[in-house]
Every structure is written in C-alpha cells, then in structure tokens.
Write a structure and sequence with these properties.
α3 packs antiparallel against α4 (71-84) and α4 packs antiparallel against α5. With 427 residues, this protein is α+β, with helices and mostly antiparallel strands. The protein has helices spanning 2-20, 24-43, 50-68, 71-84, 97-116, 120-131, 148-161, 163-183, 192-197, 201-209, 211-216, 224-241, 260-270, 276-284, 315-323, 327-332, 335-344, 379-390, 400-423, and strands at residues 253-256, 287-290, 298-301, 313-314, 345-354, 357-364, 369-375. β5 (345-354) and β6 (357-364) form a beta hairpin.
Length: 427
C-alpha cells in the first residue's frame, strides 16, 4: 500500500513539473496514469486527505485540457469535479479552499464551453453560479481574480446574442472588472473587445448613471454640506438599496450641536479667530462623526463636550491628546518650535485611516485649511511637512469645502471597497 501511494505521489508530482514546463500533453498522460491508482486508494480509504489529493489531480487535468483545446474531455472532467465535490452552496464557511477552487474552475470551464456552442443562457447561469461561491473561512483573498474577465466575456457573448436581456448584465460585469483592475496590481484587461467597450458611448452612459459611480467622487467646487449629503446617499444606496452585508456602523453620520459660547471659549484659550467657514459648519451642523469612531475610515470634527479632543486646539497639543505624548516632537523640535506650531496651526478633526495612521485636519491663522497624515510607524514622512509649516510653507493648503470633499472621496472609496470585500466574505 505504501509503495502504491508513493507511486501516485510521484506521478502527480511529475505531472506538475510537466505542467510548469508547459508540456501539457506529457502532463496529461502522467495524470491519466495516476487516475486508476487514485481510484483504488480512494476505494480502500487509504488516503490521509482524499479531497486534497483528488483536488490536485483535477487541477492538473483541467489545466492541461484547457490548454490542449479538448472540449469533450474538459466537459467530462468538469462534471466529474462537480460530482466528486457536492458542496453546500448555501453554507461555504467550512469548505476547503482547494475544493472550492476546483468547483469554481469546473463551473467556469462549463460556462465557457456553453458560450462556445452558443448556449448563452446556460453559460450565464453557470458563471453566475460560480460567482456565488464566495470565500470560505479558509480564504483571505479574492477567489475570482482570474475569472472577472472571463465572466465579462461570457456576458458579452450573451449580450450580442440577446441584447435586451443581457445588456445590463454585460455592463455590470465590465464595470466590476474595470473596478477590480484599478484596485489589483496583477489584474489587467487584455481582451481587445472588452477594452473597446470601455470607451463605448453606451457603456459610458451606463457608468455615468451608475449610482455608486456617480457618488464616488465629489464634483468640482463641492461644498462640505454636499459632501456630507453625498455620504448619506452612498450609505443609503449600499445599505438599503443593495442590502450591503457591511456592519451598520460604517454607514452612520451623527452631528451634535455646538454653541457660540463653546467656540468663543476655545478662541480665547488659543488666542485665535476661527475661520468663517469652520464657524459656519459648527453653527449649522455642530460636531460631526462619519462612521463609527472606532472604524478605519471614520471622520471626526471634534465636539464641544469631550475630555481631551475639544473642538480645536494647538497642533502638537491635539496630537498629544489623541495619541499620548509623542517622543518624535520632542526629539526633532525645540520647545520654541513646538510652541510655534501650537500658536499658528490648529487641529479640529481627523480621519482614522487605520489604527496607526490618522490624517489630522487643521487650519492656520490665515484661515487656510489642510490635512496632515501622521503614521506612527513612518514618522519620517510627516517630519519634512511639519518643518515646512514652521517656515510658513503650508503644503496643500485649501478651502474647508475642498478639504472635506477630498476626505469624503477617500472615505467613500474605502466604503465601496469594504462592501465589495464583505460580499466576497473576505472583509
């Protein structure tokens, strides 16, 4: 029995070597030689991990048949995969990674074969079934990176066959492919037909009308009020219209009133006149929390009633209050320089990019606004910007409207990513 198992392992290993050498015919011969041994060992319950061994065999065979253009054999092998691995498509959490990978490959293979013979309805049904097999607990990455383009091509064929029925499906699949290609370095679009449709007027009109795409970026000149309204609109679109599986804390926007007397007290404490735009924000909306404050991607404009982060205050003072005493300032700046920073630049909020990285929102005595990112693991990136501030060079100064609009773009972009990850079960 041990010798038989050794022979099986050797054949599959040699087949893998030939596959990597791109000698697909030789790899297929070796895989076929391994099959009767694999069947016999399975019948005798002699394999330590039967599913993994069969999965390895199927991966080899599917790859070879695809490259050798043997559609009948490919279809038979795909069906054999589905018969060997009857997974529960409604409960994927405990499924093995390699099992799901083989079933997805088999469904994609059958979908392509159906598309090739002009059976577009079956092709679409099969590729949609594949994409319903989201990540299991054993998977941390997007399991469809090698399939987004294939899905778009299958939908393209379906749209060309039945334009009225499959137009939106094709445009949706192309839009998702383009989104993924923009996010994932190793994912590209190399099919000429799909590339052509990215600039097609009908697709561009679909994209312009797409609710998520329309709300992703603020229009030029967007006000801070419009930026907040845009967040509420994308939150409604994702959570209510599209039933996002993302935690509800990522969709919240809360405001708390700020009294003129609260602002006056802080102005007196820091001997500074609040810029008119920020005063208007406080008096119209008060303090603002976009997303739960513990969430990465949350935005805060500080409240009047807080034990440490009260409305606005000196630059270093507020960073100390948020982070605790930071040794970097004392090591790289004199007391006089720290006092200068506190006397001329005033933090009034932040965006929490991650546990270690915050973008601090501030204004200066001239009423200019800016955002400075502090990463406690990468102080050297912030250091030259702070030094420039001491020299009167405010990097990236902007209006309050532009500051809030730009930060909202980043928050919404992260929310869209988070929604996509959650739908794949990899959040």
């Amino acid at each position: 029995m041990k010798q038989t198992l050794t022979k099986l392992t050797g054949l599959l290993r040699k087949a893998g070597v030939q596959l990597r050498k791109k000698d697909y015919a030789a790899a297929l011969v070796l895989a076929d030689q391994a099959l009767p041994i694999l069947e016999a060992l399975s019948d005798d319950d002699a394999l330590d991990d039967e599913d993994a061994t069969w999965s390895g065999y199927f991966q080899l065979r599917l790859a070879c048949l695809d490259k050798l253009d043997l559609p009948d054999d490919l279809a038979a092998t795909c069906e054999a995969v589905l018969e060997r691995f009857p997974i529960d498509e409604d409960d994927l959490d405990d499924e093995e990674l390699v099992t799901l990978a083989n079933v997805r490959a088999a469904l994609t293979g059958l979908a392509r074969l159906a598309a090739d013979r002009g059976d577009v309805d079956t092709a679409v049904a099969l590729i949609d079934r594949c994409f319903r097999l989201v990540a299991s607990d054993a998977e941390d990455d997007d399991p469809f990176l090698d399939k987004y383009q294939q899905r778009a091509l299958i939908y393209l064929g379906a749209w060309q066959s039945a334009p009225q029925r499959y137009r939106d499906g094709f445009f949706d699949s192309l839009h998702h492919l383009a989104y993924k290609a923009g996010k994932v370095h190793d994912l590209g679009i190399d099919d000429a037909a799909l590339l052509a449709y990215l600039s097609d007027p009908a697709y561009l009109a679909f994209k312009a009308a797409h609710p998520v795409e329309r709300l992703r970026k603020g229009e030029p000149g967007e006000t801070w009020q419009a930026a907040l309204d845009r967040f509420c609109a994308i939150a409604h679109e994702l959570r209510v219209v599209r039933a996002s599986p993302v935690w509800q804390g990522y969709f919240t926007l809360e405001c708390k009133a700020v009294a003129p007397s609260d602002l006056a007290a802080r102005e007196q404490k820091w001997n500074v006149a609040l810029p008119a735009a920020l005063r208007a924000l406080y008096l119209e909306r008060g303090s603002i929390e976009v997303q739960d404050t513990e969430a990465d991607g949350s935005l805060r404009i500080y409240a009047a009633q807080h034990y440490s982060m009260t409305l606005f205050g000196g630059f270093v003072h507020m960073i100390y209050n948020l982070w605790g005493d930071r040794w970097e300032f004392e090591e790289f700046f004199t007391e006089a320089e720290i006092s200068c920073l506190d006397a001329n630049f005033f933090i009034f909020g932040h965006v929490k990019n991650s546990e270690n990285r915050y973008t601090h929102l501030f204004f200066d005595r001239e009423g200019r606004f800016g955002g400075l990112t502090y990463d406690q693991n990468n102080w050297k990136k912030m250091l030259p910007q702070v030094k420039a501030m001491l020299k009167g060079k405010l990097t990236g100064s902007m209006s309050l409207d532009a500051l809030i609009s730009g930060q909202m773009d980043a928050l919404i972009d992260r929310l869209i990513d988070r929604d996509d990850e959650a739908r794949l079960n990899i959040d």
